[in-house]
Design goal:
Radius of gyration: 16 Å
Number of domains: 1
Helix content: 25-40%
Distance between the termini: 20 Å
Strand order of the largest sheet: 1-7-8-4-3-5
Oligomer: single chain
Order of helices and strands: EEHEEHHEEHEEH
Number of strands: 8
Mean pLDDT: 94
Structural class: alpha+beta
Length: 147
């Protein structure tokens, strides 16, 4: 289970050093093999390969006659890239995906259960400000939910 946020700096080659606290779990779960893809929110999603594969199969199995589904297939499957942790615990983020998410040097890696989100640090701060306010009211799924 991946949780928490970690500020990280990308190196000049676009490599991300995976935080040490996740490396053992990723080594045992996927031998360091992961999938990086685009997210509609303009961040990147990073999945351990065994977690991604059933999601990819579900996406591919959906009807492409619906343009919304086809667009999601293009975004997620069409942009999916295989990456592997090197001996230093780094992954190389593909240039097109870095460009898509507007990643600069400073990024934030967010654990989201069985995947990660990777955000440009400035965009992440805006996202957090937006998360503090439910502009359209509280979603019905949160009715009765308490922290």
């Amino acid at each position: 289970m991946f949780r928490g946020s970690t500020p990280i700096s990308l190196d000049n080659k676009g490599r991300l050093a995976v935080p040490v606290k996740y490396r053992d779990a990723l080594a045992s779960l996927c031998a360091g093999r992961m999938i990086v893809t685009a997210d509609p929110s303009r961040c990147l999603l990073i999945y351990p390969q065994p977690v991604w594969e059933p999601l990819e199969q579900k996406l591919i199995g959906l009807s492409s006659f619906d343009s919304r589904i086809r667009n999601l297939q293009r975004l997620l499957v069409g942009n999916a890239s295989d990456v592997e942790m090197d001996g230093g615990g780094r992954i190389l983020l593909p240039p097109l995906l870095r460009q898509f998410a507007g990643l600069s040097k400073d990024v934030v890696l967010m654990g989201q259960g069985m995947k990660f989100e990777l955000w440009d640090a400035e965009k992440w701060n805006v996202q957090m400000d937006d998360a503090l306010i439910f502009k359209d009211g509280i979603p019905p799924e949160l009715d009765g939910f308490s922290l």
